[in-house]
Automatic annotation (TrEMBL):
Enzyme Commission number: 2.3.1.-
Acyltransferase among keywords: yes
InterPro entries in the record: Acyl_CoA_acyltransferase, GNAT_dom
Residue ranges with Low complexity bias: 401-418
Pfam families tied to this protein: Acetyltransf_7
Enzyme superclass (EC): transferase
MF-aspect GO terms: acyltransferase activity
Keyword Acyltransferase listed: yes
Protein name: GNAT family N-acetyltransferase
Organism: Trichocoleus desertorum GB2-A4
Amino acid sequence: MTSVSQNSNSVIRPVQHQDLDIVEPLFVEAAIADNHSNLDAVQRRLQQVRRWYGLFKFLSLFPNPFQYRFCAYVAEQDHQVRGAIQVSPFNRTRSTWRVERVGVVETESQTQGTGSQLLRSCFEAIWEARTWLLEVNVNNKTALALYRQNGFQPLAQLTHWAIAPELLQELAEREPDLPNLLPVSNADAQLLYQLDTAAMPPLVRQVFDRHLHDFKTSLFGALLEGVKQWVNQTEVVSGYVFEPQRKAAIGYFQIQLCRDSSQNHVAQLTVHPAYTWLYPELLSQMARIAQDFPAQALLLSSADYQPEREEYLERIGATRTEHTLMMSRSVWHKLREAKPVSLEGLQLSDVLQGFQPARKPVPGRMSLPNLWQGDKTPDSTEAPLAYSEASDAETAAGSLSTPESSAVAPPSPTVSEAPARKLGFSIGRNFWGKRRIFTSKKELKLNPVPEIHFPQGHQNDSWC
């Protein structure tokens, strides 16, 4: 990504090896201003980037779990680096990205300009990201103003805690009641995904946008994770609690342990909202695991939608180390428009071509054109199709008459032939085969409708 700001001659480009001497102090100063609870871990990561920059650059050329291990950009003005930003994908689909840190050389009054340029350049360049996520200390007013100016809104409040080694020793003395504690594997990804979904509010779940494959580990990813743990002298232990009646996971923990006492232990904890009684059990289990490693504090966090966790940590005497605000922002990328087409040279036939049927319609049995196709007589006086309903009425009456009724029938009226009336297309039952009258198209002349004259004194109810 290389872009030029419209408001100044600043150039936003990817970080290079010669920029690390300036970028590293910028990120450390940003972490100090943000009152980062694990500043040592930030400095250690930056030193690893300097040491393994060539490897990280090579891994960024093809898809792999460490492709975006160090994805950073700098703002250069007059051949001098004025600011830097580090971002990383938050989930496996890369639909949500995280702003790790933003460092700017200018003073507080000039931070908004360069910081906004770095943020907006990332918004425009990374088309995969639909949502951006970050975490900022609530006391860092400058960073809060920068992020609010660029459209970030509060999502949740986080509290970071530290459990002292002495407190871990007390928790380890208690035997945890976890009969269904199982190790984690790729076969349990569906259970962990359901647990993660149930443990978060809908808005947070939408921003995180995690899927089933976010809880699986590929072979290549497992190998790289093993190399990472060997280099950092760490070990990761995880497990989950299975509920056999519901056939679901109700609790999960992951703890990263340090072997050389160079850093604190870090834990992640997920508990189903209906099983908050698992907090003491899972913390006792993690404390017992940490007893096999050098005595270090255990770091973990809680959100404002997890009041039971915060209440338990306060009750056991855990220390609040940092209070942060999680913020998010949605990004809508404008589609690249094609070259506009002039309507002057467009023919009407080309416009109406899309309205024509894809194939010629096939006439059906009831199609009207089929009725009039075939042999036509030269007689132009041939009457159109009509139907004598009186004859149908007489036929129906005759079929329902009995010998008794016919014996006492009144005198029959005289019927005079009336001229044939030209009626339009009438009934359709003759063409359905229910009652077929005509045998050929020349016999389509309708029977003339007779006029009925009643005898004198007999136009009464018997003929109605």
